[in-house]
C-alpha cells in the first residue's frame, strides 16, 4: 500500500481529517475535473473554484477521517500523486501555530504556553487543543492554521498538548467588529435538494465566508459574486436559512461593507437568478 495512504489511514482511524499533498505542498485533486486547477480553484487550492462535483474533492474541505472514502477509486490517483499527507486541524479540534523561523520560535517561547511541538523544515508547529479561525501573517513568520486550512503532517511531535489559550486567539483580532443586524430575504425554495447532507451546505457557507474574508481588494464585487454563488447553489431548495444569510452579511460587514450594501448585493443576486 502507498506509504502516504498508510499514514493517512492511521490518522483517520484516530479521528483526524486527512488529504493528499503533492510534492510542492499543494492539495491533490481527487477527481479528473479538478486536476491542475481545471475547475478554477485558486493556486493554493485553499478556496476551491466553481467545482461541480457532488462533494468537495480538493483543498481543506475534502479532508476526511473516513477510511472507506480514502480508499475509493476516486482517491486512488490522488494518493499515487501524493508527496505528503496533510490534515485539517480545525476538523480535528486543533490549532497549529506555524512558526517559520528562529525569531518566531523565540517569540513563541516568550509569549505562548508550552504545548506539543513538531519540527518543520524551517521552524516548528505548536499544536493546541481547540479550534479557531485561521489567519496568515499574524506577525512576522507566524501563521495560524485551524478552521478552513490545512497543515502538513510531519510527525506526532513531543510534549503535552495544551488547551488553546486566549493569547493565541487574540493574534487574529485586529479591531472590534461594528456589524449591525440586517434582514435578508431568503428564497422559499421548493426545488430539488442537491446537497445530500447538511455538511455539504455548511461547507459551502464556510467557504463563502472565507472567500469574503480573504478579499484583499474589490470587496464590493467579491461580496456580490459570493452571494450570487451561494444563492445559485443553495437558494432554490429551501435549505438556505436566515441564519446562513446572517453569517454572510456579518462576514461582509467585517470587511467594511455597509448593511445597506449587503442588502443591495443580496437583492441584486436574487434578481439576477430570477428568484
Summary tags:
single chain, 275 residues, 3 domains, globular
Given as residue ranges, the uncertain stretches (5+ residues, pLDDT < 50) are 42-50
Distance between the termini: 50 Å
How many structurally independent domains?
Answer: 3
Helix fraction bin: 25-40%
The number of helices is 9
Mean pLDDT: 81
Shape: globular
Strand content: 5-15%
Q: SS-based structural class?
A: alpha+beta
Verbal overview:
The protein is an alpha+beta fold and 275 residues long. It folds into three domains: 3-85, no CATH class; 90-172, no CATH class; 198-273, no CATH class. The chain is built from nine helices and nine strands. The chain has helices at residues 3-13, 67-70, 73-81, 102-111, 166-169, 198-213, 219-234, 242-254, 259-273, and strands at 18-21, 84-87, 94-99, 116-119, 124-129, 135-139, 142-145, 151-152, 162-163. The strands form two sheets. Strands 3, 4, 5, 6, 7 and 9 form a six-stranded mixed beta sheet that branches. It has a three-stranded antiparallel beta sheet with strand order 1-2-8. Helix 6 (198-213) packs parallel to helix 8 and helix 7 crosses helix 9. The longest helix is centred in the C-terminal third of the chain and has 16 residues, at 198-213. It is globular. The model is unreliable at 42-50 (pLDDT under 50).
Concise synopsis of the structure shown:
This protein is of the alpha+beta class and 275 residues long.
Helix/strand layout:
Blueprint: H1 3-13, E1 18-21, H2 67-70, H3 73-81, E2 84-87, E3 94-99, H4 102-111, E4 116-119, E5 124-129, E6 135-139, E7 142-145, E8 151-152, E9 162-163, H5 166-169, H6 198-213, H7 219-234, H8 242-254, H9 259-273
Parallel strand pairs: 5-9
Antiparallel strand pairs: 1-2, 2-8, 3-5, 3-7, 4-5, 6-7
Helix pairs in contact: 6-7, 6-8, 7-9
